[in-house]
TrEMBL record:
<dbReference type="GO" id="GO:0016787">
    <property type="term" value="F:hydrolase activity"/>
</dbReference>
<protein>
    <submittedName>
        <fullName>Metal-dependent phosphohydrolase</fullName>
    </submittedName>
</protein>
<keyword id="KW-0378">Hydrolase</keyword>
<dbReference type="InterPro" id="IPR003607">
    <property type="entry name" value="HD/PDEase_dom"/>
</dbReference>
<dbReference type="Pfam" id="PF13487">
    <property type="entry name" value="HD_5"/>
</dbReference>
<feature type="domain" description="HD-GYP">
    <location>
        <begin position="118"/>
        <end position="304"/>
    </location>
</feature>
<dbReference type="InterPro" id="IPR037522">
    <property type="entry name" value="HD_GYP_dom"/>
</dbReference>
């Protein structure tokens, strides 16, 4: 099936205007419907359709439509002020970008950020809503949404320009892009990683940088943040142990660490309260691993 791409069952309803294929019991790829034939609503509601595939030549058109649908759902969620709706929409968009079978192009994400911050400016409740969600999942999608929300809160506290905010938030949204290239068991485990697993995990920074570099429409700082967000000012970080780190990577790296302590349960430690998480990070600030000014501002915006 080199010319076919699987689609998520939850997204079948969006592909009414495209030819859909399925795999027979004999392993043969067969046409299920032409572009002009509609899917049965009752079968859709009962989730009784088989695994469908689209042809590679339809990928661009499908991705564009899916991104429009997701952005519309996000805009509606922002208008509704519903916490669950907002988070679900954000997670869907990030998940499609990071790990969706269609490989949604990253160039489409600035439009999503545009919608997000248009909504923030018109609805100040959104920022509070996003940062108030106490998520303890270790999944990349959930983690990326939390880091995005915390970064947005920091940027608004600092009164950054609209362009700065968009860039910083894209850095936050895509900082763990390379994790999509790591074994899912390693990324989602709640156990302490073995030395071998940790060595594999650490490669997500370089993998993310290389992937983001493929998209020339993004600011260079986005790829640099993916590469450097685990570096530390004293040279103790990875992947290269450097001390000169971009400001975006310093900010996202600190917020990334806070989010992991505050929101993620592990078998060897429970998720911490904000104060306790900040106290642990403060120890590293004193050890000159993190930027002290960023830490002070983060503390201020979290208790504001």
């Amino acid at each position: 099936m080199p010319d076919l791409i699987p689609i998520k069952k939850s997204h079948i309803k969006y592909y009414n205007n495209f030819p859909l294929y399925y795999i027979s019991k004999n392993g043969e790829a067969l046409l299920y419907k032409n572009a002009d034939k509609k899917l049965d609503k009752d079968l859709l509601e009962r989730n009784q359709y088989p695994q469908f595939f689209i042809h590679k030549e339809d990928k661009v058109s499908v991705v564009e439509k899916l991104q429009r649908v997701l952005n519309i759902k996000l805009a509606r969620a922002i208008s509704s002020k519903g916490l669950y709706a907002i988070k679900k929409s954000l997670c869907n968009i990030v998940e499609e970008a990071l790990s969706g079978p269609l490989g949604v192009t990253l160039e489409s994400l600035p439009e999503t950020i545009e919608i997000l911050f248009y909504g923030v400016k018109k609805n100040s409740d959104l920022l509070d809503a996003l940062t108030a969600i106490n998520n303890k999942s270790s999944k990349v999608v959930e983690h990326s949404v939390n880091v995005l929300a915390l970064t947005a809160q920091y940027c608004f506290f600092k009164r950054y320009s609209e362009e700065q905010i968009k860039t910083f938030c894209l850095c936050a949204l895509l900082h763990d892009f390379g994790s999509s290239k790591i074994d899912k068991k390693i990324i989602e485990t709640k156990e302490k990683l073995t030395d071998k697993e940790y060595s594999i995990y650490k490669t997500h920074t370089i993998k993310g940088f290389r992937e983001i570099e493929l998209y020339p429409t993004f600011d260079k700082s986005i790829g640099i943040t993916a590469l450097e967000h685990h570096e530390r000012l004293d040279g103790s970080g990875y992947p290269h142990g450097i001390k000169q780190i971009s400001f975006e990577a310093q900010l996202v790296g600190l917020i990334d660490s806070y989010e992991a302590l505050k929101y993620q349960d592990k078998t060897f430690r429970k998720a911490l309260k904000p104060y306790d998480a900040l106290q642990i990070i403060k120890t590293d600030v004193v050890a000159e691993k993190y930027n002290k000014a960023i830490f002070v501002d983060l503390c201020s915006c979290l208790i504001k």
